[in-house]
Amino acid sequence: MLVCRSSVARVLVPIATVAAGVLAACGTASDRPAKPSADSGVVVSGTGASAPARDSSAAPTTTTSGGTVTPRADTSAAPTNRTVARIDVDKEFPVVRALYVNRFAAQSPKRMKQLIQIADETEINALVLDLKDEFGLNYKPANAEWAKNAGTSGVIRNLPALLDTLRAHKILPIARLVVFKDSVAARVNPEHTIRQQNGSVWRDKKGLAWVNPYDRKIWAYNIGVAEELAKIGFGEIQFDYIRFPEPYKSLPPQVFPGTNGSKADALAEFLKEANSRLDKVGARSTADIFGLVTTVGGPLEVGQWWEKLAPHTDALLPMVYPSHYPRGSFGIPSPNADPYKVIKIALTRARERNEKMGLKTPEHVRPYLQAFTLGSPHYGPEQLNAQKRATYDSGFDGWVLWSPGSKYEEFLPAFEKTLVSRKK
To answer: Can you spell out the DSSP letters for 380-403?
Structure first.
């Protein structure tokens, strides 16, 4: 099963240690303030029903104690007119150690309660929630036009209550937004898609259409959603799929209406505008990128280039999964079996490139670490500890764990009880 978010077919610049066809995808020590337990009576969104099946159009239901199934009230109202105090992210969360929470886990009150309990009892102080992914929006927006892009995979019920719960537990809510691999917006708004040379809609290897990264209306939609989520309580917006699709030779050439400048410049300009607007609503602006970007000295064919993107984000999150580096990368026979060395090299290079540009924000680099198994060896607490040590030895304190199914129990022995600065 493919567990990464995306892949890179080739790079524009040669690199001896990386083969083509790579899959990418607090100052002083301090403890987090004590948080109420997950069972303390703080309300978690919803009724405790399990996450809905994908693409289910059936009316929401719940099972009573007698075993009958009855319709459940729709509590997924749009957060219209909701006002909350801004989160001072730099003061409250200078270091982020987070878990990724997919769409369906975020929709499940039972699973959210379990993840909150993990955070209460460990160093975890943030959750990255899918609010806009490849399946559309995962909440009801106030904007009726945006609501057309919701898709059919359900939404988080009573998002404001969930955000209030996370804040009560001293957990930073981070909204993950998939930007250009948006098959729902592409289907509903075909005029804003990547095209083929004959004018028809271009599709990737899975048959999915992508929206056009040069299209300013697509920018406006994504940044608008980000602003709304910041205003209703998210302290950080994490953009993903900040890239163009791979130009596989087996697929038709891609045509981008309204092309203006290079791919790398277009992505940088999007992030620059998003960062500026999110600053005004008090939210941190971050972006996920391929792990290769830290060590490749120019742009990948998908447009990601460290020097172009880094100045326009509060943090970049390279996906430095050891399993995604081909054999021989960095002179390492089996990168997946040597997670410490892979991540140490990748993050040290990122830090050096930042320093050369004069970017001195302490936590400007926050890697995504591998919390899944792909190939040999099986990944568990030992491998996670190695990845964490490599992060700290590279000069950074924060990280996010990526598990496609948002399952982290196997890795709990590698979690510390409190958040303490470990970076060198």
So the answer is: SHHHHHHHHHHHHHTT---EEEE-
DSSP codes of every residue in 61-105 = EEE-TTS-EEEPP------TT---PPP-HHHH-SS-EEEEE-HHH
Q: Measured in whole angstroms, how far is the alpha carbon of residue 406 from the centre of its chain?
A: 12
First to last CA, the chain: 36
The count of other CB atoms within 10 Å of the CB of residue 70 is 11
Neighbouring C-beta atoms of residue 33, cutoff 10 Å: 8
Cα–Cα distance for residue pair 419/236, rounded to 1 Å: 19
Query: Judging by DSSP bridges, how do beta strands 136-137 and 97-101 pair with one another?
Result: unpaired
- Rounding to the nearest 10 degrees, give the CA dihedral for residues 307, 424, 315, 194: 60
How does pLDDT run across 330-384, given as a tens digit for each residue? 999 999 999 999 999 999 999 999 999 999 999 999 999 999 999 999 999 999 9
69-71 and 172-178 strand pairing: unpaired
Distance, CA of 189 to chain centre: 24
Q: The pTM is what?
A: 0.84
Is residue 236 within 8 Å of 288, Cβ to Cβ?
Answer: no
Which residue has 């929630």 as its token pair? 129
359-378 burial, b at 16+ Cβ within 10 Å, e below that, comes to: beeebbbbbbbbbbebeeee
Q: How do the domains of the chain map onto residue ranges? A: 83-414
Phi-psi region of 55 (alpha: psi -120 to 50; beta: other; left: phi over 0): left
Mean pLDDT of 88-109: 98
Is the torsion defined by CA of 344, 349, 354, 355 positive or negative?
A: positive
* Count of all residues that appear for the chain in the document: 424
Q: CATH number of the domain at 83-414, please?
A: 3.20.20.80
